[in-house]
Amino acid sequence: MDERFSNQTELVVRVLKYDGTDHRNWRARLASHEGELVVLAAAFSEEVQHDILGFIAAGTLSTEYYWLNRWYNVFRFSEPDGELLSYYCNVNLPPKLAADSLTYVDLDIDILVQPNFTFQILDTEDFEANILRYGYTREVQAGVHKATDELVELIKTQSFPFNQ
Length: 164
Fold this sequence. Notes:
Layout: E1 10-16, E2 22-34, E3 37-43, E4 48-50, E5 54-56, E6 61-67, E7 72-78, E8 84-92, E9 96-97, E10 101-113, E11 119-122, H1 124-134, H2 138-156
Parallel strand pairs: 1-10
Antiparallel strand pairs: 1-2, 2-3, 3-6, 4-5, 6-7, 7-8, 8-10, 9-10, 10-11
C-alpha cells in the first residue's frame, strides 16, 4: 500500500464534468491501494432517490473500484449484511489520487448491472450531446467506446470485480 495512506484514510471523491465543473462529491474510506487499483468503502448516511437506481436506503454500502490507468470505475452496492444489490459502472477519464481526494472526470456512459448479471448501458444520448457541448476529442470518444467494451466483457465473463 502507498505509504501516504492508511486503511483509516478518509478521502473526498470528486466527480467533475469535462469542462472542469464540479458534478458531485462524497466521502469514502480507503480500503486498499495496490498498484493501479484503489478500493474505497462508503455507506449512504441518508436515503437517496436516484434517477436510475431508485430508492437507496441509508446504510447501503458502496465498495468502489478505481484503476488509475483505466477509463472506468465500478461500484458494488450492497445491503449492510453484504447482500449484493447491483453494480454501477461509470466511464470516465482515469482518476487522480491525492492524499485527501480521488478525482475523476465523468464521461456520461454508465452501466447498471443486476445481481443476475443482466445489464443496461445508460446515458448514450447524454454522451452524444456532450460530444458537441464539451468538445470531446476523437481520442476521448475512442477511449469511451473502448472502456465500455472492456466493461461489457468483464460483466459477461463475471471477471473481477464482478466476481466479488
